[in-house]
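pasting for ref
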Amino acid sequence: MIVIQATFPIDPDHHEQAAELMQTLATESRNEDGILDYRVTTDIEEPHTFRFFELYENEAAFGAHGETDHFEEFEAALPEMLAGEPSVTRYDVDAATDLEL
C-alpha cells in the first residue's frame, strides 16, 4: 500500500480556482481502480493551504494515477496557483490496522 501526504500553499487570489480543480481531481481519482481513498482538505489554521491524503493499493495504481487527464490538468495548473513551496511525502506501508476509539 502507498500513502501520499501532500501540502499545497495556494495564493489567496487563486483559492477558488484551486478548490474547484482539486475537487474535480479528488472526485475523478476516487473512481480509479486501485485508489482506496483520495481526500483534499483545507487546513483550519492556514485556510489557503490544501492537504491531500491519497491511499493506493499498489505501485501500478499509483503510476496509472499520474497518467490520467485529471491529474495532468491539475499538475499543469498548479505552479501558477502556488503561494509557496509544496511538500509531498510518500509512505510505503506493509500493513494497516483499525484502532478502536
